[in-house]
Amino acid sequence: MLDMKRMDSIIEVNEASRYALIEAGVTQAALRAYLEKHHPHLQHSTPESPPTATIVGNILIQGHGHLTPRYGVNSQMVNGMEVVLPTGEVCKLGSSSISPSWFSRDPLPDLMGLFLGWLGTTGIVTKLSLQLFPKPIYRDLLLFVSDSAELIPEIIVELSDINLLENGFIITQEKPRWAQRIPDPAGAADLGDIGTLFPSQEPEYKDISSLVLLSKTGELLKAKGIVQGTV
């Protein structure tokens, strides 16, 4: 196991070509803070992981970020890499292999797939060029609720078509019985339905006063150790 934490330099941020050249130990929080201080109009795709997680680590596992709905997974945002091979050789991928700039994967054949997703087993990434994106001046939050899970993909497609959606979260849960308008057969006190407890077809309950039923219900609750509140 290699600990890359000490390789934590942000080597370059190129505003014109919108990329950041970083070492393998740079964390999500470090680059975010650096951009906010020195390049507040630029941002990188930040995952929902602890701020101490490294950017290169997230990319090498094909991780997602908050810009993924718009620009793809974070591994697709790589312009170039410096990699140490198992033989000890150091190779550069992307434009940095033929020029001093790290602005693109081109013009040589794209060999990034030999290292992305392999968790460091095919080579150790020591430097990486990551695409940066304009940071919107204005942001807003949109919440919506749907009763049909089948509609969610269609909703996401329509939102992405307007080319404004930067990030999205989907939270699903089963509707509670009251929201489904389904009566709970056991009731809150687990005594069953009142019609079962006091069937109207029985002579003793025919035309009985509701106050009497209320009193009998109170006795049942008391027997279960339930304290009755305001009625």
Explain this structure.
- This protein is of the alpha+beta class.
- Among the domains are: 10-134, Uridine Diphospho-n-acetylenolpyruvylglucosamine Reductase, domain 3; 194-223, no CATH class.
- Helix content is 21%, strand content 14%.
- The chain has helices at 28-38, 55-60, 68-71, 152-161, 194-197, 210-223, and strands at residues 10-14, 19-23, 42-43, 78-84, 90-93, 124-131, 133-134.
- The chain has a 5-stranded antiparallel beta sheet with strand order 1-2-6-4-5, with no helix packed on it. A two-stranded antiparallel sheet has the order 3-7.
- The N and C termini lie far apart (66 Å).
The fraction of residues in strands falls at 5-15%
How helix-rich are the residues, as a percent range?
A: 10-25%
- Main β sheet profile: 5 strands, antiparallel
- Shape by Cα distribution: elongated
Report strand order across the widest sheet: 1-2-6-4-5
CATH fold label of the domain at 10-134? Uridine Diphospho-n-acetylenolpyruvylglucosamine Reductase, domain 3
Uncertain parts = none
Number of helices: 6
From the alpha-carbon coordinates, what is the Rg to the nearest angstrom? 30 Å
Series of H and E elements: EEHEHHEEEEHHH
The CATH class of the domain at 10-134 is Alpha Beta
- How far apart are the termini? 66 Å
Classify the oligomer. single chain
By CATH, the architecture of the domain at 10-134 is named 2-Layer Sandwich
Number of strands: 7
Mean pLDDT: 86
**What structural category characterises the helix and strand content?**
alpha+beta
